[in-house]
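Consider a protein example.
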Amino acid sequence: MGGVLMIILALVVIAAVMSIAYYNTFVRLRNQSDEAFSTMDVYLKKRYDLIPNLVETVKHYAIHEKETLEKVISARTMAMGSQSIDERVQNENMLSGTLKSLFAVSESYPDLKADTSFLNLQNQLSSIENEISQARKYYNGAVRALNTKIEMFPSNIVANMAGFKKYPFFEAEEAERENVKVQF
């Protein structure tokens, strides 16, 4: 009887140690995902700060493009006011689309395309977009590690018991995946 009790006790201790180890792994992975999102958020805020200057510069040249400018400002406001990661992903994708339409408008105004302020803002925004892209990769890598651990057996048991939830990936929308149409 004593041997069976020792085996049961050993199994309980092993299960407890494994549960603690899995729990700590989930905490580490969740914190990495949160840190990755915060890093990306810094670049997104830089982009938010550039947008009003860009819109003001375009306003002076593209008086007839009021609707496009309003869409950019509206998309910026929605992205800044996002309450969840899912909502943030959706609103950021919408903002990216409206910025593309803003730059498409600039093609119709040669004076705007030559304006040094506009070119400077466009270069800054391009640089920030590259940084956002790198931050998205980092975030998605951290989320992949967390989500994989949440789904894998036996760690999924601890994840469910402790209430760990999967994080959403920061993915491009369908419109962003389409090939750019170039016409001559």
Observations:
- The CA atoms of residues 72 and 100 lie 10 Å apart.
- The chain is about 80% helix and 0% strand.
- Residues 2-61 form the longest helix (60 residues).
